[in-house]
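sry for the spam today, last one i promise. struct tokens for design, 325 residues
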């Protein structure tokens, strides 16, 4: 085999450079060809033994909007994965951080199999936290899957209930686990691995609109932050703004599936996300996401990711950088 063909891709240029730097002279009409072959052989052996760095695609904290695809090399340390599960017209998100797990909503009851399969594929048999953001069926229905198939340590939900079949089954599942539902207050925090989960809302609960009883929580992982808003609409967004809580986040789970009733300009100006994830069903009858909401997200220069178009979406944090899978 020709010696040049043994070199790694791109090494021919390196070979010539190495010859020049090493003081090797190119043959003239008076230079022995064998001397050149020997020089090439020596440089070739050096290059073959050299450790070439592999390419990494890291999104810096200043430029988190670039997606990466494969062969990602993470920095050493703690990792958080936010899985936005495609549950059709509903919400479902799994947060993994350093071997601990939080499930936020589970779609409708007919998505129970999807939720169960997803958790199984992730090797999860115990959830540290389960969050029902509010009592609507497209958020609480699929939570019956983990409540009936694995152990759950703590369950969070708003105070406001409903007598729907989906919510009743959720309550039964919690009771069968021997648990009592925890109603978090604004400012309450829990640890998930090396991340901190802070409950921001609801500040007050509007019993006339279950959407505005939604649990809103922020997850901080190093320099990265994620904001989950359930179906919070403009009224709850305004209450959050008036409370003075920190809403800034790199990743926003857009409220109410991208409905026009959520994601107001004042709220979006406080969050200013790099990524905006919309969970909705393909060709859904509600027209989600609304064009007005998409326009506002475009104005905010947020990169929009949609489960109806992209399926399951995973955003990974290594405390300093974000990666989209």
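last one done:
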């Amino acid at each position: 085999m020709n010696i040049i063909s043994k070199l790694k891709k791109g090494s021919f240029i390196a070979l010539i450079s190495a010859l020049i730097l090493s003081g090797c002279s190119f043959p003239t009409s008076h230079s022995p060809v064998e001397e050149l072959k020997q020089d090439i052989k020596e440089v070739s052996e050096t290059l073959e033994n050299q450790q070439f760095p592999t390419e990494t695609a890291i999104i810096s904290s200043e430029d988190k909007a670039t997606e990466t695809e494969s062969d990602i090399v993470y920095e050493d340390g703690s990792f958080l994965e936010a899985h936005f599960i495609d549950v059709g017209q509903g919400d479902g998100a799994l947060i993994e951080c350093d071997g601990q797990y939080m499930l936020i909503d589970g779609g409708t009851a007919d998505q129970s199999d999807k939720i169960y399969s997803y958790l199984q594929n992730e090797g999860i048999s115990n959830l540290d936290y389960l969050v029902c953001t509010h009592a609507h069926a497209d958020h609480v229905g699929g939570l019956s899957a983990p409540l009936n198939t694995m152990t759950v340590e703590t369950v969070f939900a708003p105070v406001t209930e409903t007598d729907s079949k989906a919510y009743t089954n959720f309550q039964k599942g919690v009771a069968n686990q021997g648990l009592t539902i925890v109603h978090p207050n604004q400012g309450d925090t829990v640890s998930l691995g090396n991340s901190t989960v802070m409950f921001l809302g609801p500040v007050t609960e509007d019993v006339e609109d279950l959407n505005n009883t939604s649990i809103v929580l922020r997850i901080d992982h190093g320099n990265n932050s994620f904001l989950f808003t359930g179906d919070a609409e403009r009224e709850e967004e305004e209450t959050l703004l008036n409370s003075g809580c920190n809403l800034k986040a790199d990743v926003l789970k857009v409220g109410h599936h991208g409905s026009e009733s959520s994601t107001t300009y004042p709220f979006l100006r406080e969050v200013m996300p790099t990524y905006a994830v919309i969970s909705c069903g393909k060709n859904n009858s509600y027209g989600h996401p609304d064009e007005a909401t998409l326009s506002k997200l475009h104005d905010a220069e947020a990169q929009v990711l949609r489960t109806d178009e992209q399926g399951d979406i995973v955003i990974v944090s290594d405390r300093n950088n974000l990666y989209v899978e």
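Residues 1-34, 43-71 have pLDDT under 50 and may be disordered. ok im logging off now
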